[in-house]
C-alpha cells in the first residue's frame, strides 16, 4: 500500500480484526507502504511514519519505500501537497537526507527494511553508494513492453530485489490469448513473473481477479510462446508521471519533458 493510495486506515482496521481474533499473527503478514512525495524532509519522515503506523495499527512496517524520487512541498500546517497557481511545487531535498532519516527509524525497529520506487539507474546507484542500510527492494513499472534491462542488471549486482507493477499493462495484450481460456492479459504474467520480475504486485478490487492472481502458477508457456513474447520489439512506458514533469529529479530520461506539470523550484 502507500500513503497516497488512501487505504492504510482500512487495511489497519481489517488487520486489527484478524489479529484480535487470532486468525493471523503480526508475523504472518508482510506490510509494505511508502513515503509520500510531500514528506521527504528529514524532520517530516518520522512524523509521517508514525501516522502510517497508527493508521495500519501495527508497531512496525516490514518494507518502507520512497514512493518516488520527486519530493514536493507540503502545506505549512498539515501533511498535504502544497499548490501554487494550481501546480505542485518541487522541493529539492536530497535523496540521501531522506534516506538517512529512514535509516534512523530502521535502527529503532519501526522500519524493518528500506527500499525505493520509480528511481532510475543513477538515482539507485547514488543511494546505494552512500547508504548505511542498503536498499532491499526497488519497485518499478515492468512488463513485456518495458523490460528495464539496465535497471534490473544493476539491481542484480547490488543484490536489490525487484517488484514489478503494471506487469500486464501492455495495451496490446489481448492478442496474446488466442489458444487458452484465460481472461485477457494473463499470458503475459508468467514470463514477467518467472523471467523478468520474479515478484509482481497484482492490483485489483475484484474477488475473481484476486483468485486468478493466486492461481497464476498452475500453467506454463511453451518455448515457442516464450520466444514469441520476448521477441516483441515495442518499447512503451505506460506510467510517465506527468505530474512530475519539470521536476529537477524527474527520473525518466526517455520521456520528452516538453510541458512542465509542476512549478520550477
Task: Give me a quick take on this structure.
The protein is of the alpha/beta class and 265 residues long. It has helices at 8-21, 45-56, 95-107, 121-130, 149-158, 189-197, 207-214, 223-230, and strands at residues 32-35, 61-66, 83-84, 87-88, 111-117, 137-141, 161-165. Helix 1 crosses helix 2 (45-56).
Unreliable runs, pLDDT <50, ≥5 residues? Answer: 170-193
Class per helix and strand makeup: alpha/beta
Question: Based on CA inertia axes, which overall geometry fits?
Answer: globular
Strand arrangement, major sheet: 1-2-5-6-7
- The overall strand count is 7
Overall helicity = 25-40%
How far the N terminus sits from the C terminus, by CA atoms, comes to: 29 Å
Mean pLDDT: 86
Question: How would you sum up the major sheet?
Answer: 5 strands, parallel
Walkthrough of the structure:
- By secondary structure, the chain is α/β, with parallel strands linked by helices.
- The chain has eight helices and seven strands; from the N terminus they run αβαβββαβαβαβααα.
- The chain has helices at 8-21, 45-56, 95-107, 121-130, 149-158, 189-197, 207-214, 223-230; strands at 32-35, 61-66, 83-84, 87-88, 111-117, 137-141, 161-165.
- It has a five-stranded parallel sheet with strand order 1-2-5-6-7. It has a two-stranded antiparallel sheet with strand order 3-4.
- The longest helix is centred in the N-terminal third of the chain and has 14 residues, at 8-21.
- The relative contact order is 0.12.
- The model is unreliable at 170-193 (pLDDT under 50).
Amino acid at each position: 500500500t502507500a500513503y497516497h493510495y488512501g487505504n492504510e486506515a482500512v487495511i489497519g482496521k481489517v488487520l486489527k480484526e484478524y489479529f484480535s481474533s487470532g486468525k493471523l499473527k503480526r508475523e504472518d503478514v508482510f506490510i509494505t507502504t511508502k513515503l509520500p512525495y510531500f514528506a521527504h524532509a528529514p524532520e517530516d519522515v518520522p512524523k509521517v511514519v508514525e501516522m502510517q503506523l497508527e493508521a495500519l495499527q501495527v508497531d512496525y512496517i516490514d518494507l518502507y519505500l520512497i514512493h518516488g524520487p520527486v519530493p514536493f512541498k507540503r502545506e505549512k500546517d498539515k501533511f498535504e501537497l502544497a499548490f501554487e497557481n494550481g501546480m505542485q511545487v518541487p522541493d529539492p531535498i536530497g535523496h540521501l537526507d531522506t534516506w538517512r532519516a529512514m535509516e534512523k527509524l530502521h535502527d529503532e525497529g519501526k522500519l524493518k527494511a528500506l527500499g525505493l520506487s520509480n528511481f532510475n539507474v543513477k538515482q539507485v546507484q547514488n543511494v546505494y553508494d552512500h547508504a548505511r542500510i542498503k536498499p532491499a527492494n526497488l519497485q518499478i513499472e515492468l512488463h513485456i513492453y518495458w523490460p528495464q534491462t539496465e535497471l534490473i542488471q544493476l539491481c542484480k549486482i547490488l543484490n536489490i530485489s525487484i517488484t514489478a507493477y503494471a506487469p500486464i499493462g501492455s495495451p496490446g495484450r489481448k492478442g496474446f490469448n488466442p489458444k487458452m481460456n484465460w481472461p485477457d492479459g494473463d499470458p503475459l504474467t508468467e514470463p514477467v513473473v518467472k523471467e523478468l520480475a520474479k515478484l509482481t504486485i497484482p492490483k485489483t478490487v475484484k474477488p475473481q481477479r484476486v483468485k486468478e492472481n493466486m492461481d497464476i502458477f498452475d500453467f506454463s508457456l511453451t518455448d515457442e510462446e516464450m520466444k514469441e513474447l520476448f521477441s516483441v520489439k515495442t518499447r512503451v512506458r505506460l506510467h510517465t508521471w506527468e505530474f512530475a514533469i519539470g521536476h529537477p529529479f524527474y527520473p525518466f530520461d526517455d520521456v520528452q519533458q516538453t510541458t512542465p506539470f509542476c512549478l520550477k523550484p
